[in-house]
Amino acid sequence: MTDVSLNPQAAAGDAAYESQFGDYIALLKPRVMSLVVFTAFVGLVAAPVHVHPFIAFCAVLFIAVGGGASGALNMWYDSDIDAVMKRTVGRPIPSGRVGREEALALGLTLSGFSCVMLALAANVFAGLFLAFTIFFYAVVYTMWLKRWTPQNIVIGGAAGAFPPMIGWAVATGGVSVESVLMFLLVFMWTPPHFWALALFMKEDYRDAGVPMLTVTHGRKSTRKHILAYTVLLAPIALVTGVTSIGGPIYMAVAVVLNGLFLKGAFQIWRRDETTAEADNYKVERSFFKLSLYYTALHFAAILVEALLKPYGLGGW
Description:
By secondary structure, this protein is mainly alpha-helical. The protein folds into two domains: about 20-175, UbiA prenyltransferase (Tetracycline Repressor, domain 2), CATH 1.10.357.140; about 175-315, Four Helix Bundle (Hemerythrin (Met), subunit A), CATH 1.20.120. The chain is about 75% helix and about 0% strand. The chain has 17 helices and no strands. Helix 4 (about 55-75) packs antiparallel against helix 6 (about 100-120) and helix 11 runs antiparallel to helix 14. It is flat and about 55 Å long.
């Protein structure tokens, strides 16, 4: 029986609500999973070791399942926060469509299944790496960092940055400079991406008691942090372009994107609250929208370089 206690309105309106298949899919955070799948796939394809297409398909599938398991465990633990925030109140648990116990059972089951199957399909190192990633996101970030420190998204962002390294590990059985750079590309992008969102959604995090940087240190400090992390991110993106996974196509994309990202971060840094509120945080929203494409386009460029290499067209 679905637990509707988190949402009295749902309980009053439909106490006999039966969870639908789509409700369980929503628990897996499919939008977040799509980035996990894509970066893991790119890491696998960009690796210097050929992987049989069927094994590659299975590996990416199990990584996706592991990412979904993390999402379910996150929603299980954060259901109290989600019920308060406008951005998340419609999620399956706070809306009363799925019970907390169901979400926990689904998350644990998919976690174990995905890690074991990845180890069998690819190699033990990749399976253990996926297990560590799920643990890091569900326990280190969700249960500890998120409610304890304003650096939650900085350290916790590592969980979302591991997938390309897992994909690389599927092919090679290990770690390399290239896989670490792909990790850093996502890791350093995560804070400015989320802090830009937090600038125009401060009340949500404050009401939920989440110590986001905008709540604990204010918007002025957050603007400085966005600029600092963006400045540190740009050289990582450019250095990646001169490694074995880079090339002229990637470098062109990186130069343009990081130029735009730096410009946006500088504009945010120069802002004050009076101006931002007057135009409804137009610059911050624009920067956030750009950040949605930033990582995807960098990894798309890495993928193009990898696919062109057999024809002598990709890479340097």
